[in-house]
Fold this protein.
Amino acid sequence: MSRIFQKFLVILFAGALLLLAGWSSYSIFKYSSEAAEIKRDYSELNSITHGIMSVNIWRDHLTTMVLNRIDEFEFTEAQEDTLVHQVENILTAGIDKGADILDQKQKGIKAKLQKFAVKTLVPEDKIRALVPMFAQIIVNEIQKPENKEALKYVIKSKLQEYSDLTHDDSRVATLKIKALLDKYEVEDLAGFNEKIPQKIIHLEDQTYFHTYILLGIIGAFLLLWWLLRRQKAVHTPLFIISVLVSLVVLFSGLTAPMIEIDARFQQVSFLLIGESITFNDQVIFFQSKSILDVIGILFNNGKADSYLVGILILVFSIIFPVAKLLATQIYLGGNDKIRKNRILKFFAFKSGKWSMADVYVIAIFMAYIGFQGILDNQLSLLNMETDSLVSISTNKTSLQPGFLIFIVFVLFSLILSTILKRITSLENKIIKQEKQIPV
């Protein structure tokens, strides 16, 4: 009776952990998927394509800068003298042009009379002597507040007109940006960047919280196996539930992002005509992928070599581990006839060396190390600081919860294989003892 009660307690406790693992796994999938989607949208809106490399952004910045300079413009004494000299040149050129026209040979009595009248009544020498005075009067008129504002208005109007004619031709990109802003119910990029980072942090915290719960459940099962290692009566139900937990962990490992590649300009500042233009968090490249995402990309690539790699990852890193876990369940609960099946025995005991799950984990880790080193090296070349330009790049590439979960799955499945061999060897030993066959 005590053994039955003990088995009941183990099943109840292990079953509760299984339900908790299922809830945590679903939560990891939900929060990580939402975070990955928001990060992709963030990288799209803050991409250098729509920022530092955008014609529209530079047009707006430069137009604003020039308009500010027009509003702030005042003549200095040296500039006034220069302007007077330029106006004198213009007036002198006009007089020269008029004199050239008058000096031309005229035909007809009327034209000759007009030429004589002009030369007599409008003496050229006296007009030329008045040029400096006229130039000064014109400049004085320009500097009157009402005339200066009118002049600024004309210049600003023409500048705005030319600015409106300068824009990116990509209507698709513009519509996409507007759709993303509408999706998050914000008016502009500044509002988006103020609202979204806190949401991303919240989703990441929730993802890691449930990841740690899932890892804690695996630790609890390992502790249970150690405490109950001599209680043969509970081994079978505990093993069955352990395999189900392992499948739940595998689901999280396959669907949660494993690696995130994020290269960006943290800050780029330009000093132009006395004003600073600053771009913050300009995303150069961003990717966040799970194992299933990678397989999907390889299959959608359309190339034979991509199909081959996708099939290899699918078979040896997903199908084999799942088949192994299911085979251990069937083998443990099956009779002698079922256990003699070669395929079943292969997947239960010998498929481990064919599984590439552990190799895939190492490959992901090496890829992370490689990307980290390459990006650190290349982005360091973009860092510079001069009087007119400050550029600060940053590499936010990181391993994600999916990588940690998949590692735990690989280790836990290997431990379960060892436990299965021990359980079956003990069963065989008992059977031999019952038949009185010396061991």
Notes: The beta strands are 259-272, 275-289, 384-385, 389-395, 398-399. The chain has a mean pLDDT of 76. The two ends are 31 Å apart (CA to CA).
